[in-house]
Amino acid sequence: MVLRIERDHIRFKDIIKGRIKRDFKKYITQGEMIGRQDGRVVSIPVPQIDLPRFRHGKNQGGGVAQGDGEVGDATDAGQPGDGHGHAGDQPGQHLLEVDITLEELAQILGEELELPNIEPKGERQIQEEADRYTGIRTTGPESLRHNKRTFRRALKRQISTGTYDPRNPQIIPIKDDMRYRARRPTTSPRANAVIIYIMDVSGSMGDEQKEIVRIESFWIDTWLRHQYKELDIRYLVHDAAAREVDRHTFYHLRESGGTKISSAYQLLLKILDDEYDTNEWNIYPFHFSDGDNWGSGDTELCLKLLEERLVPDSNLFCYGQVESPYGSGQFLKDLRSHFKDEDKLATSNIPDKDGIYGSIKTFLGKGA
Predict the structure, then answer these.
(1) Are strands 41-47 and 37-38 parallel, antiparallel or unpaired?
(2) Exposure on the CB side of residue 127, measured as CA atoms within 13 A
(3) NCBIfam families from the xrefs (predicted)?
(4) Domain coordinates of the chain in residue numbers?
(5) Are 305 and 264 spatial neighbours (Cβ–Cβ below 8 Å)?
(6) Does domain 191-364 have CATH number 3.40.50.410?
(7) Residue 307 DSSP one-character state
(8) 3-class SS at 361?
(9) Three state DSSP letters for 202-221
(10) Is the pTM of this model over 0.70?
């Protein structure tokens, strides 16, 4: 019975994943999913799913092909109506909230967007110790008993003592024959990564533009957490000045003011210099703005910082320009003109929520 329940549960989860895949573009643009996140699990609303099943009746009206009538008589299909009905008393279609892990969500994201797995570059790895059951010892719990080794030891003992009978091959282990799996510490490489989200919170960035940034950041988080065991996430916001904030503030902050992008890039450089050795960390900055910078002089400073430090030190530097109702600026065009053949810098234009899907694929499709 337990195996049957598990089998049905797996089948149900497969059906749910199929529904999510079918409507994945719709789910990507839903900001309320961020609020439904609870640890490593996300609640996703899907249409109610009713699995078909047979129900036994009392068979009072006869079975199939039974009852009054002659061969060839037409069946009674009922009387046609006039097309005017009344308010019904039956419930409509309901939504079912299904919990799905972020790991499963990342797998769906990778399959749907055909994202390549990330390969850490350079020497940005540290050594991690882990215990594995690769040793053998003579004592231990029964759950770790090595049956093959125990059987082999008992067979050798019985042959050496002359108690083994080939005509009646019974192998009976004793206490001295028991062998158990033992832990041995092993060292393996572990990649470290840091994501730095940078968001323009100036007056020209409206609530809808900030919501787009928050939604896209959620999906980038989901994918990179799937790729890296160790992941630091930092949040920077800027208008004419930049500062670091926590996750909650980043997702809920509303400010106004002018825009000076270089302030964010200078703060980013300080954080990297103080806390993240580029030989040990995979670095992924994601900057979102409407592109309306303070002036050409500041843009030139930004390009210099990117060219000399930020792009070379990053695995991938991503800039997403969110279109503003007040008109988007020139920064995206300046980046694309200055970094025409730079593989470590990715840019995307995000006109609205429907553009999130393509932007994620642009940023993460490089597998950098």
Answers:
(1) antiparallel
(2) 4
(3) PRK05325.2-3
(4) 1-50+93-114, 127-186, 191-364
(5) no
(6) yes
(7) I
(8) helix
(9) CCCCCHHHHHHHHHHHHHHH
(10) no
